[in-house]
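User: Predict the complex with zinc ion.
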Amino acid sequence: MIPVKLNIDKNTLNITWNDNSEDKIKLANLRRLCPCAVCNSEREKNGNTYIPIYTGNQLKIENIKIVGSYAVNIIWKDGHSNGIYDFDYLLKISRN
Ligand SMILES: [Zn+2]
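Assistant: Here is the predicted structure with zinc ion placed in the model:
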């Protein structure tokens, strides 16, 4: 599925998909599940029970860019900008 609308409402990212269904994902979860190499290795190193706590600008979105036709790149206000969330991954984490 493809997101047709993304909007940020306080602490939540609202996603409207191309089949008109809607999902919400908390920004804290979105950040925690960042798929970039740095965050991946952090999670691997710390194991499954690792729950990072993010605060302030780490939980504010500066910008969202569409990458090609398959993903979104989320740029956080603290400067963390490597996370490329492909649409399938976004769907998966928003419905978990
Ligand atoms: Zn990351």
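The chain has one domain: 3-94.
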